[in-house]
Amino acid sequence: MALNNFLFAQCVCYFLAFLFSFVAVVPLSENGHDFRGRCLLFTEGMWLSDNLTVRERARFTVQEWGPPAACRFSLLASLLSLLLAAAHAWRTLFFLCKGHEGSFFYAFLNLLVSAFVVFLVFIASTIVSVGFTMWCDTITEKGTVPHSCEELQAIDLKLNVNNSAFYDQFAITQVHFPTPDWPLKALVGCGWPGDSCHIWEPSGSAGHRVGPEVLC
């Protein structure tokens, strides 16, 4: 029963990782399509007046679009997390129903894979957070424009792109990256479902193994 409960918890964890990864992949893909392959992150620009004799901000001009690699990396990190979460969820569910005795090697392998995904998600979350903040600071001129970053998505910036949903897309994207599913799995999981691991408890100055191998 304890084994089944643990496998079920793993399955739920992987399902949540899959769900949040999907939530990130969709808006990132839509934003890339709306901006015609241009990367919004880290974009530099300024507001210019249509009439140079009038001190009025009327048109936003992009000086340099953000590096495409920034958006591609974030999308690829989400896709990788999505695929691995789906594979782990299916494997966990399979072994929950059938049962399996694995080895320490698979547990160690899973730990490395999970840690790698944690690293990618951390880098991607930093890129998205910092890059989108720089974009919002640019189009609002750090708050001097009488519109918030969210309000400006309802205004045609005349950049030959569809900017009608950029704020919502990246707000949804950032829901995925802070989630603890992969870090939690890397720290908690004994690895792949059915992999064997050992539980240790302190006993005086040394530890001893409790019983035989415990299946994860």
From TrEMBL:
- Protein's UniProt keywords contain Transmembrane helix: yes
Checking Pfam families in the record gives: Claudin_TMEM179-179B
Topology in the membrane?
Answer: Multi-pass membrane protein
User: Keywords of this protein's UniProt record, alphabetized?
Assistant: Membrane, Transmembrane, Transmembrane helix
Compartment(s) = Membrane
Transmembrane spans: 6-28, 73-93, 105-132
Q: Which family does it belong to?
A: Belongs to the TMEM179 family.
Protein name (Swiss-Prot/TrEMBL): Transmembrane protein 179 isoform X2
Source organism per UniProt: Galeopterus variegatus (Malayan flying lemur)
